[in-house]
């Protein structure tokens, strides 16, 4: 409670903490729902996963970090064992959605766009921060949806959220785990080892060369791993930091564009199965590389554009 | 801590693990533990870093609060209304339809609104609309041409989603970049991260539209015009 009463702490930070608590409670609620859900064949594993995650997200500030580390390891266990699934879905029928579209029509775009819209307005005009803006946008969106249809009761929002979380599943945690892996790598000195190795090959001090290697490295790593999020952590600690940012390049521009250089790699690799292989099956295509072939030119063009962009503006 | 070549073990595990398509969460956990032990950092120190870093990065779980409305938006006909909006478009060729979808997808990606990807939107709506233009232009259906249209539709989905998703100010990619930079001692705001991506997203969108326009033109010439001349 001291945290919320302390006048030295910014309002934005307090609001953000409240948003984390709401997120935590939604996740814990999802966990409890899953514990009780008899239609979910892994109700125990799913319950443990969402409950522990909610605990860490909602109340992590007040738990000693070593204990949090243990709770996170517990959280990953059912995920690794494939014991996080969802039970019977409660999504609305096609007929219901059609009728809703008849009634509400294009007005549905008002609550849909309000999250992103409010986030950007709050981020640009206040000191509260973008994530608090997202939170406010969600509240606004809920209110508008309740006005648009009497069927949208608080219960409906919660059950729909449980359903959506069940659908996206444990992989939604991957960016957070990768960020933590990056922190472990940095603390273990992985960056220094890579950069001392790389510095034997590339002359230090050449920013342009550093940018090119960082960008192409992102593409190659992403093509091998199939995941730009995994590549950005490793490449930034090893190459981006010591060979580009250390020479005074703009960290926001270089870091962000490096990630999308990785996306150029994602467009060109069958390792990114969800994007390049699964659609082939869904669309029943004859050529199993039919999606990648259509992306190749754009991916290579964008790589060149992004490298030039980083060299000119960093 | 000393620069220790053994600490690269985690890196190796990540690369090999992802390449072999092992469980992603397992790979990260094993890589973390292996790095901690090999570098001499120790297990408890790793737990400490894991805990504090995860809590510091809770912002990446912002999708949880967004989920409170995502499902209900769909329940209230978001997808149906989008279909109706796109179907108002008439009298354009296949590349025109795919370009309109690209613009639509990029704009909505900036607001974190998704319509279901290839399975939910491209396959049931965008591709059939593109395919329908063949006959409305007076050509006979051609399977090879249809295959090319499928490829273009899925490619436009991927290109616009990849480069467009960073226009949303609380997107996972930007948050990951922000935290990676923070671990190296650089503090950047989410607004800056979004702004630097605007030109990249626009160039990707325009490039894809132009490319598919010329590709479609060439394909029509190749598959249909010649046929007409022969007749």
The rounded distance between the terminal residues' Cα atoms of chain A is 44 Å
Sheet/helix structural class of chain A: mainly alpha
The helix content of chain A, as a percent range, equals: over 70%
What is the CA-based Rg of chain A, rounded?
23 Å
Q: Beta-strand level of the residues of chain A, as a percent range?
A: under 5%
Globular, elongated, flat, extended or rod-shaped: what is the shape of chain A?
globular
Structural class by sheet pairing and helices of chain B: mainly alpha
Terminal-residue CA separation of chain B:
78 Å
Residue share in β-strands of chain B: under 5%
Helix-strand string of chain B: HHHHHHHHHH
**SSE string of chain A, helix = H, strand = E?**
HHHHHHHHHHHHHHHH
How much helicity do the residues of chain B have? Answer: over 70%
Mean pLDDT of chain B: 91
Work out the radius of gyration of chain B: 23 Å
Biggest interface: A-B, 156 and 121 residues
What summary fits the major beta sheet of chain A?
none
The total strand number of chain A stands at: 0
Low-confidence spans of chain A: pLDDT under 50, at least 5 residues? none
Care to describe what's here?
The complex is a heterodimer of chains A (about 325) and B (about 230). Chain A is about 75% helix and about 0% strand. Chain A has helices at about 1-5, 10-35, 45-60, 65-80, 95-105, 110-125, 130-150, 155-170, 175-190, 190-200, 205-225, 230-245, 250-265, 275, 280, 290-314. In chain A, α2 (about 10-35) packs across α8 (about 155-170) and α6 (about 110-125) runs antiparallel to α7. Chain B is built from 10 helices and no strands. The model of chain B has no long low-confidence stretch (mean pLDDT about 90). The interface between A and B is large, with 156 and 121 residues.
């Amino acid at each position: 409670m001291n945290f919320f009463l302390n006048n030295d702490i910014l309002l934005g930070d307090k609001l953000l903490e409240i948003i984390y608590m709401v997120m935590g409670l939604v996740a814990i609620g999802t966990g409890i729902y899953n514990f009780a859900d008899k239609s979910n064949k892994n109700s125990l594993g799913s319950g443990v996963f969402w409950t522990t995650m909610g605990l860490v997200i909602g109340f992590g500030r007040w738990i000693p970090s070593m204990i949090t580390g243990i709770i996170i390891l517990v959280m990953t266990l059912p995920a690794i064992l494939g014991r996080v699934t969802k039970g019977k879905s409660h999504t609305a029928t096609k007929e219901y959605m059609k009728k809703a579209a008849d009634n509400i029509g294009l007005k549905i775009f008002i609550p849909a766009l309000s999250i992103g819209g409010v986030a950007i307005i709050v981020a640009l005009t206040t000191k509260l921060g973008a994530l608090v803006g997202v939170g406010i946008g969600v509240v606004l969106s809920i209110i508008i949806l309740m006005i648009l249809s009497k069927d949208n009761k608080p219960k409906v929002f919660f059950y729909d959220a449980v359903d959506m979380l069940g659908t996206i599943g444990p992989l939604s945690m991957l960016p957070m785990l990768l960020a933590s892996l990056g922190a472990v790598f940095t603390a273990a000195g992985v960056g220094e080892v890579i950069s001392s190795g790389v510095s034997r090959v590339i002359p230090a001090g050449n920013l342009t060369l550093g940018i090119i290697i960082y960008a192409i490295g992102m593409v190659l790593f992403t093509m091998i791993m199939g995941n730009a999020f995994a590549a950005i952590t490793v490449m930034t600690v090893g190459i981006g930091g010591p060979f580009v940012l250390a020479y005074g390049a703009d960290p926001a521009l270089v870091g962000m564009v490096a990630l999308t250089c990785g996306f150029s790699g994602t467009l060109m690799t069958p390792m990114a199965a969800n994007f390049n292989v699964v659609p082939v099956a869904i669309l029943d295509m004859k050529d199993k590389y039919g999606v990648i072939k259509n992306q190749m030119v754009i991916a290579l063009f964008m790589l060149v554009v992004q490298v030039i962009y980083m060299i000119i503006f960093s | 801590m000393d620069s220790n070549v053994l600490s690269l073990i985690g890196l190796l595990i990540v690369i090999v693990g992802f390449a072999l398509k092992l469980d992603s969460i397992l790979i990260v956990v094993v890589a973390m533990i292996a790095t901690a032990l090999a570098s001499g950092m120790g297990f408890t120190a790793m737990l400490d870093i894991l805990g504090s870093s995860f809590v510091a990065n809770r912002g990446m779980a912002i999708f949880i609060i967004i989920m409170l409305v995502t499902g209900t938006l769909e329940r209230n006909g978001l997808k149906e209304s989008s279909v109706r909006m796109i179907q108002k478009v008439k009298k354009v060729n296949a590349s025109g339809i795919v370009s309109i979808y690209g613009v639509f997808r990029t704009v909505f990606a900036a607001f974190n609104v998704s319509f279901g990807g290839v399975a939910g939107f491209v396959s049931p709506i965008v591709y059939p609309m593109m395919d329908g233009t063949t006959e409305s232009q007076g050509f006979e259906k051609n399977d090879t041409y249809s295959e090319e249209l499928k490829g273009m539709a899925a490619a436009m989905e991927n290109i616009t989603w990849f480069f467009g998703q960073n226009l949303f100010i609380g997107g996972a990619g930007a948050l990951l970049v922000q935290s990676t930079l923070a671990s190296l001692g650089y503090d950047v705001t989410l607004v800056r991260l979004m702004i630097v991506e605007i030109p990249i997203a626009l160039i990707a969108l325009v490039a894809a539209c132009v490319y598919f326009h010329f590709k479609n033109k060439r394909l029509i010439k190749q598959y249909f015009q010649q046929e007409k001349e022969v007749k």
